[in-house]
């Protein structure tokens, strides 16, 4: 089967209420695109039998492969099976291996199993059952007419395991092609989406195989390269050739690929150069250091950080002179400069980085929300201070500040 039209349906009222975000659909779409399957629709429907059935009817009419996440749990509002049964008329049976697993779990936890937990072992008689290695409810692949329905738990780590182990290999077989499809995501920082597309315009216009697709990301910009070939080796050669063409144009902004984060790239550069870093954080409140120490191996490069949100902490711990603060304020280049120099000295770090500014929502010291100063201080005495005017709510400004700090550090080290 070629040109598969895929659709992702998320079931759960909590998604409609905004209590949780539907990150599953985004993740699944990325993985399907990587094997050459286009997702034509995303849908979210609440826990209402009639509305779920109506959505399933619509999905069945317009899509070849429908992936449903959620609604497979033990409670009364888990209605995915019931809605599909009304559509298909398929028999639902109890899957004995799943039931044994559920009973064993409750016995091990020494908890009485309530009768409604049996619901999680209910499957369609004609389904290909997928073992849930990290949870209770099994997944299912169900042929229905000329359509394929795939039912997965809504819990992200359960869903991802089944997608990787069972669904993606199954769909690659369903494509019925001997062609190998490989993708790589190139990640960039310090360049906007429109500028990146402009710089790559001639490559994009000439693209055939691999294809080039610029994508906006939460942190920076990415470009996905996707190649088709008869073998893995040929596909990777095609990608490598196009990757070099891309980097010849915008390589100065490139920091990694696929799941590589900017902070991980910074950590690698620090390790390679045998340098250490310490941070003095006011408005970011420890967010910069938190991201760094979340990466294994951070202890080799990270001296630590000082959260100096209060002015007295800047004065008494970081030793920022009170007369400097009186003259220039805490939201200033002089204050940021001393913060970075002193945290470097206090923690014996090769590099000190400081963040001070106004996260909002109101102004401070005559500066509007979004005013930020970042200083990088090297042990040699060399300094760089940048002023920014970020926009957004309080959390957005803080995140933008941290991202910019990593960008400055990356550019310094590379």
From TrEMBL:
Using the record for this protein, list the coiled-coil segments as residue ranges, or answer none: none
**MoaB/Mog domain span:** 7-174
Family membership noted in the UniProt record: Belongs to the CinA family.
Q: What is this protein called?
A: Putative competence-damage inducible protein
Q: Which organism is it from?
A: Lentibacillus cibarius
